[in-house]
Amino acid sequence: MLKLVDFSYQTSVVSESAFHEHLKLYNGYVNKVNDICHGLENADKSKACHNYSQYRGLKKELSFCLNGVMFHEMYFRNMGDGSNKPGEHFLRAVGDFDKWKEDFIATAKSARGWALCCFEQRTCKVVNVLQDSYSDDLVVSAYPLLLIDMYEHSYFTDYKSDREAYIECFMDAVNWQCVEERAKSLEV
Ligand SMILES: [Fe+2]
C-alpha cells in the first residue's frame, strides 16, 4: 500500500492555499494507485488482452497514476524559497549553467504537462525533456534531478495565464540542496 507523504508549505513560488489545493490532487493519485493495485489483485488474469481487457486498463492507469505520485513528490521537494544555490555536482553535470537554464526555461514553456531536467544514464549527460502526460514521452534511462509542473492547476490560482512569471519565480526559488542530493546519489 502506497503511503501519502505529508508535505508542509515551505515555498515562495505559490500561495499556501494553491499549495494545499495541489496537495489534494497528489492525494488523489496516491489513492488511485492503491485502488488500482487492489483491482489488479482481484482481476481475472486469464482474460488479459492487448486489445481490451480489465487487466490492460488497470496496468495502463497504474503507470499514469504512479508517475503522478512520483512527479509530484519530487516537485514539492525541489520547489523551495530561494535560500540556497546550485551545488557542485549539479553544476559539473550541466557544464554551462546559463545555457542549461535557458534550455530548461524554454522546455518548461513548451510543456503541456511537465518539464524535467534529467541525468541520462546512457550518455551520462544532463538533458531537459518535456512530458505532456504522465505516460507519454518518458525517457527510460533519464533520472529526474529537477521537475516543474506545467499543468494549469499548478500556477493558475496565483499567476493566472502568466506561465512565464510562474517559471521565473520557480527558477528563483529552486531548492538546490534537494537537486544536489539527487545528483550526488547518482554520482554525477
Ligand atoms: Fe500537479
What is the name of the CATH architecture of the largest domain? 3-Layer(bab) Sandwich
CATH superfamily of the largest domain: Iron/manganese superoxide dismutase, C-terminal domain
Q: Taking Cα atoms only, what radius of gyration do you get, to the nearest Å? A: 18 Å
The structural class is mainly alpha
> Which small-molecule species are bound to the chains here?
fe (ii) ion
The CATH topology of the largest domain comes to minor pseudopilin epsh fold
Q: Which descriptor suits the 3D outline?
A: globular
Percent in helix: 40-55%
What distance lies between the first and last C-alpha atoms, to the nearest angstrom? Answer: 32 Å
SSE sequence, one letter per element: HHHHEEEHHH
Low-confidence stretches: none
Q: If helices are DSSP runs of H or I spanning 4 or more residues, what is the number of helices?
A: 7
The number of domains = 2
**Main β-sheet description:** 3 strands, antiparallel
Summarize the structure in words.
- With 188 residues, this protein is mainly alpha-helical.
- The protein has 2 domains: 16-78; 88-185, minor pseudopilin epsh fold.
- The chain is 52% helix and 12% strand.
- A 3-stranded antiparallel β-sheet has the order 2-1-3.
- Strand 1 (114-120) and strand 2 (125-131) form a beta hairpin.
- Helix 1 (16-42) runs antiparallel to helix 2 (54-78) and helix 3 (88-94) packs across helix 7 (176-185).
- The model has no long low-confidence stretch (mean pLDDT 96).
- The structure holds fe (ii) ion.
Short description:
The protein is mainly alpha-helical and 188 residues long.
